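DM from R.C. (forwarded with permission)

"hey, sorry to bug you on a friday — could you get me a structure for this? deadline for the figure draft is monday and I only need the backbone to look sensible"
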Amino acid sequence: MTRALVLCGGSPHAHDFDGIGRALTEVLGPDTAIVAHPDDFARRLNEPWDLTVVHALWWRMLGDSYNEWRDRWGYSTSEHTASAITQYVADGGSLLSLHTAPICFDDWPEWGDILGGGWQWGTSSHPPKGPIELHITGEHPITEGLPETIALSDEVYGDLRMSPRAEVLAVARRHPDDDDQPVIWTHRFGNGQVVHIGVAHDEHTITHPVIANIITRAASWLTQATPVHS
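My reply, with the result:
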């Protein structure tokens, strides 16, 4: 069984993190521990996990549209939490990044360096959840044998700040006239390995047969590609 520590939480204004956590436990298996807050996640990184997962939205919530949520859910990344996560991955930990992760920790630019892709305020964007087509582009154990095109209802994050070292495995478009946007990729950070899967907006996508398969393949590949971290 894969021992997975999952950070799953944040403002509920756009994501049902309780439902997402249940879906991730269903897909990843019973040895999945869910924590809601980044500081708790960081404190537990010294336990013997095979895999860490981030599907969370802890950020500063700047702008008037978030006024009603900010007092309860606004978050600034502590130096301890940033240092603990950086060291965990750099020292050989494996990280599965899902959907909201690039927006998380928006006051910590190095987070995007770890993931291989980061949100850029004023540049990056995503439309509301709706029909999309995911196109498999890279040959990799995570995507081997999958349909070339997968129809989903989800969100596509576009114009991210991508690392040139990220290996893109799948793309999608925000709208018909859009450029292809990286949606699934792998990225090496220090001695650790990261996989990002952008199409995981809610429990319906996470448990979609093809996406659940991609998530479990990513978890398997990560735990084989990097040593158990203890």
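R.C.: lifesaver. The radius of gyration is 16 Å.
me: no worries. The chain is about 30% helix and 25% strand.
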